[in-house]
Structures are given as structure tokens and as C-alpha cells.
Write a structure and sequence with these properties.
about 190 residues; elongated
Length: about 190
């Protein structure tokens, strides 16, 4: 069934297509996000999607960029919470965001590792923001931020990324157990500094 598409301004059409991509990801997080799937969900032709984004790569970048911005917003610390709770809720929010769109997360990491400069810069920016709030929350807990502690926090983030990638491919524990593991691993790593 083909939907009739209303005439929208270019920014509205791009937003409509990106919202459709999000719906596709939420409906089946393990399914590959294709131009055809998103176009069908948005009620537009693949050609129109290419018209607004230019290429498959630019479309993927736009989807990843929007998802990264959402993750940054969702994981931002709530200063009204005690430091331990800030860390706990931020880590849980990050894990949940990844589990909502695992294929997108995997694609981001793989494209970054493959050397795609735009994706690498986006991933680096997201990691930097995440690291800054983790280090800030650790400092709020009364831990002195030495170079070793800072390095441990960055290393922990790499550990979490790899743990999530392994879980996406083989979810042998519950999402709650995964969240708990990610939370507890930070304390375990910090206890060695």
C-alpha cells in the first residue's frame, strides 16, 4: 500500500525520514537499516530519500548523528541526584540506548574503526562527552582525578563498548544483568587505581 505524501519543506521531510528510520530501528532492533525499509516506513520512494540525503552513506551518517545526539541527551547527568545515582542512571541510559538500536551502534563502531572520518569524528565526540560526565561524576564521589584515574575511565568506556558488541551478537544474559555488569565494572576498574 502506497501512502500519499504531503508536500513538506525540506527540513520537515528530512525529519520525517529520520523519524521513520527510528521507528524501523525500534520495531526490530536487530534488522539491518536499509534505505528501502526506511523509505517504505516514511511513505516515500527510495529516490526521494536519496534526494534529501544525497547518498546511502550520508543517510547513514544523518541517522547515526541523530542517534548520537539522543544518547548524549539521555545520558547527561542529573545534578539533582547524588553522584552514585548520577553514574548509575547515566550508565543504564547508555546501555538502554544501545540496546534499542544495536545495529546502529554496531555500524557506528565498525564504520569508525574502518576509518570513516565523519563517523570517527562523531564517535570521538560522543565518547568525549560521555567520558567527561563519567569523570565528573567520579570526581563528585570524592575520588581524586589523577592521570591514572582518567585513563581508567577511558579504558572502562572501551570495555563497555566491547561488552555491548559481544552481547549484541550473543545475548547470553538479561539486559538488566548487562546494565549491572557495566555499572559494577567501573567500580572494579577504579578500585585498582
Amino acid at each position: 500500500m502506497t501512502r500519499t505524501t504531503a508536500r513538506l519543506r525540506p527540513d520537515e521531510r528530512r525529519t520525517q525520514i529520520l523519524e521513520a528510520a527510528r521507528r524501523v530501528l525500534l520495531a526490530d532492533p536487530h534488522r539491518e537499516l536499509t534505505v528501502e525499509l526506511v523509505a517504505a516506513e516514511a511513505g516515500v520512494s527510495p529516490a526521494l530519500l536519496f534526494h534529501y540525503f544525497g547518498s546511502k552513506k550520508k543517510f547513514q551518517y544523518a541517522v547515526i548523528e541523530e542517534a548520537a545526539a539522543e544518547v548524549v541527551l539521555r545520558t547527561a547527568p542529573d545534578p539533582s541526584l547524588p553522584p552514585d545515582e548520577q553514574l548509575r542512571t547515566g550508565i543504564r541510559a547508555f546501555v538502554r540506548a544501545v540496546l534499542e538500536a544495536p545495529q546502529l551502534y554496531r555500524a557506528t563502531l565498525l564504520m569508525s574503526a574502518a576509518g570513516d572520518p565523519e563517523i570517527r569524528a562523531l564517535h570521538s565526540d560522543m565518547r568525549r562527552v560521555f567520558s567527561q560526565w563519567v569523570i565528573g561524576a567520579v570526581a563528585e564521589r570524592g575520588i581524586e582525578i589523577t592521570p591514572v584515574v582518567e585513563l581508567a575511565c577511558h579504558g572502562w568506556q572501551g570495555y563497555v563498548e566491547q561488552t555491548l558488541l559481544v552481547w549484541i551478537d550473543d545475548p547470553t544474559v538479561s539486559p538488566e544483568a548487562l546494565e549491572h555488569l557495566c555499572e559494577q565494572s567501573l567500580d572494579a576498574i577504579l578500585s585498582t587505581t
